[in-house]
Amino acid sequence: MQSFEYYASQADNIDFRAECWIDGQFVRSKSGETFENFNPATGKKLCDVARGNGHDVNAAVKAARAAFEDGRWSRKTPGERKEVLLNLAKLIRENITEMALLDTLDMGKPISETINVDVPGAAFFFQWHAEAVDKIYDEIAPTGGRDIAMIRRTPLGVIGAVVPWNFPLDMATWKLAPALATGNSVVLKPAEQSPLSALRLAELAKEAGLPDGVLNVVPGFGEDAGQALGRHMDVDCLVFTGSTAVGKLFQRYAGESNMKQVWLETGGKSPNIIFPDADLEKAADMAAFGIFFNQGEVCSANSRLLVHSSIRDEMIAKLKERAEQIKQGDPLDPATKMGAMVDNNHASTVEAFLNVGKGEANLITGGSRFAIGDSDAFIQPTIFADVPKDSTIARDEIFGPVLAIQTFETESEAVEMANNSLYGLAASVWTADLTRAMDFSDKLHVGTVSVNTVDALSAMTPFGGMKQSGFGRDLSIHSFDKYTALKTIWVKY
Ligand code: NDP
Could you tell me if the CB of 230 is within 6 A of ligand 1? Predict the structure, then answer.
C-alpha cells in the first residue's frame, strides 16, 4: 500500500469519464441531462454524470443486438473470447490504483479494501470465467440408431444487468464475466451512486479487444434507465443485484413486457450462530468482520448474531472490544478500516434504524451517526444485545454496521431463530462438532452456509439466495446457466 498523501494526490489527478458508453464510445445522454456525483466521505462533488434514460437504453440495446446478430463476439470461439477476457483481467491489474480510487471515491469504502479485495477480485473473476469457458463440453443424447441429438449451450442474446453500489466493480464483474465469456452482448446500468468504475471498465474492455457494441454502460437512475432495461422488448434476460423490493419490480417489468428471464440476487439478514464449543476468539474476530466489513453494506452481512446463552456475556464483551478498535476515517487513508456510508440518504436510513434499535434492545456500543470534516455520512460500529425475536432490527435488512445479538438455549431453537426471516442468502455456524455443523447446515434455508468462518466465497462456488434473497447463482461454472440456453439439434443420417 502507498501513503494517504499518495492516494489523495492520485485522486486529484483522475480525469473522470462519466458519459454513456454505447457502441464502443463515450456519448452524452440523448437528453443532455446530467446528475451530480459526490464523494460521500468528504461531501465534495466528483463530477457530473450523464443521466441515461429510455432513449439511451434503446440505443445501447440496438448496438448490443447488432453486435450479437453479426457474430463479432457471439460467434467467436470460446478460446478467442478467453484471450480477450484474459487481456481485460491483465488491464484491470495494470490499472489497479485508478480502479480502486474510483470505487473508493464513489462510495466511501477504504482504499485498503478496494486495492486488496475489490479490484484484484474483479480481475480474478474475469480470469476465472475466461479460463473456464473453453473447458465445458456440449452433450450428445443417448438416442442410438442413425440419429445424433446434440444438446448445445448457446448464448441468450442481449443481457440487461442492473447492479448496486456496495461493491461497484465486483457486482458488475459477477454479471459481465460469465455473460461475456458465453458470447452475449450486455447493457449494464450501474447504481447512480457509483457509475465510475463500470465506465472505466468498459473502456478497458475495448482496449483488451472486446468488439464495439458488445458491452454498453448506461448510467442513470433506476426508475428511468433501470426500468427501461427491465421493460425492453429486445432484452432477452435481466440480471439484477439489489434490494428485494426492486427485484420484485423487475419480475413485474418482465411480465408486462416480453417475459424476459429475470435472475435476482437480493437482500439478506444473515444469521451467525455460535455454539459454546467453538473457538470463541476466532468466532468473535470473524463475527466483527462479518458485520463491520464494507461498513456493513454487504448483502450477506452477518447482521444477526445468535449465541448460546452460556456464552452471551463473554461474546458481547469480545465483540464490544473489537467494534471499539475499528479505525474510522478518510477512506483514502490506508489505516482506515471503516469509511463513510454510500450517501447521506443511506446514512439517514441507517441512523433511523439506530433510533428504532435504542427503543427495542440494549445498546452495547456505538449507536451514532457522526461527521468527519464536511461529511456526516459516518456511522459508528454498533451492537445491540437482547434483541427481541420479532423486533425491527432483528427482522429488517439495515445494510449498515449494526449487529443484533440474540440468545438461544437449544439447537432446535437456534434453527428456528435462524430460519425466522424472509431472507435466505447466507448463514454461519461455529462449532467444533462436525456432525452438528452438518446437521445444522442441512436445516438452514440459505444459499451459502459458512462453518467456522463467515462469508465463505470464491469464484469456484455459486453465490445466491433462497426465499426473498432471490434466485439464480453468480460465480462458478453454474453462473453460465443464466446466460445460455440449451438448444437441441437433431440429425438423422
Ligand atoms: P436498489 O435495489 O435500490 O438498487 C439496485 C439497482 O437497481 C440500482 O442500479 C438502482 O438504480 C436500480 N433501481 C432502483 N430502483 C429501480 C426501479 N424502480 N426500476 C429499475 N431499477 C431500479 O439497491 P441498493 O443499490 O440500495 O443496494 C442495496 C441492496 O442490494 C441491498 O438490499 C443488498 O442486500 C442488495 N445486494 C444483494 C446482493 C446479493 O448478491 N444478493 C449483493 C449486494 C447487494 P439507482 O441506484 O441508480 O437508482
Answer: yes
